[in-house]
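### Sample
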Amino acid sequence: MTATLLKEASPPPTAPADRDRRRRARRRARIIALAFVFPALLLLGALVVYPVLFSVGRSFFDASGNRFVGGDNYTEMFRDPATLKAVRNTAIWVVVAPTLLTGLGLVLAVLVEKIRWATAFKLLLFMPMAVSFLAAGIIFRLAYDEDPEKGVLNAAAVSVHDAFKDASSYPNARARDGQGLTKAADGSYGTTATASPGDTVGLGLVGVRAEDLPGSARPAYPASTGKASADELRGVVYLDFTRGGGGEQGKVDKAESGLPEMKVEAVRDGKTVASGTTAADGSFRFQGLDPGSYTVRLPASNFAPPYEGVSWLGPALVTPAIIGAYLWIWTGFAMVLIGAGLAALPRDALEAARMDGANEWQIFRRITVPLLGPVLTVVFVTLVINVMKVFDLVYIIAPGPVQEDATVLATQMWLVSFGGGNNQGLGSALGVLLLLLVIPAMVFNVRRFRGSQR
């Protein structure tokens, strides 16, 4: 009876017709899915797969594309100093930019949670992502301009510098040849003939425009006619130029102006024994001098060129400057992504830590950061992939003379292939190298995504 019940309870065997029907249904579903996917696969093959395969094949041919050279392009690639510099700069980008961005994004994401206008602050930081790399490059090319009249960073640097250190009032001033002043190697001027206490000397300079004279400047002629006492050395520093013509070179004329705030020194046996600053009429006096011969000197600081700021786009700073522009664009991206992970953290763990007496730094270091580990890894690897392909900012921001100092693999590939090198064999080899460097990071990111989905 038990066998009879089991036989009645078991399902009837599937008929061959039912199996065929199900097989046809599955085949039809696969065909429909393939029909929907085929346009995307076709586009992917035309825009990604074919260019990759073509570049790999092209990398084994010479510049003309007619002669097979094997691995010569890859050998030449690592012998070329410009390519080695591009590899070095790319390594700097990969190490510095993603690390700074991930750190900044983490800190900002944690701090934004504690302010009232968090949404507005996030929007403000994320806004540069809406700016194209071309526009951002132009913005920072202007911001980094060495001319303080154009570059905002150098304008700020010059303002801060001049607030703490006075700039020279006469950077273009110079002495006439054969008029009693000799220029030293350090840029200072000294009198050709020596002077003694009781003398009055005139130090005439040119090269100063009348409109550049300080507003306090007064005529020098009255000071040049004064008499010095027996222990006093007097003189006047003046602009040896008369507007409208006339006057006599090397002599103070009535229409000529004194040069105020000019530093003057009395030198004896190579040592400065007295110093002073000219008055509004350019006059100066050294009192209490011992008898003897002195040289009157105008120190080089009077003629020092004005501080022009920092050469942001010079060979030494061009790569850090471009990385700074990249940080401005991508900090919001890192902050928003990490902030989303931060919002998903279990609040009970944070509250339990606070109840146990942990301070905010301990919570951040021992709870927040470890729990955000997967998110931080994804952000870091994504930025590494993006950094390896950076091209626009480097090409736009770096001026022509320092383009080679700032080049990375992407810009070097373009320069070799289309930017004057016209060697698409070597350029294809660089493209293959860049692809091989990007693939491990992409595979790692895909595995992380799959692991998080499980």
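The first helix runs from residue 2 to 9. This sample (ABC transporter permease subunit) is used throughout the tutorial notebook.
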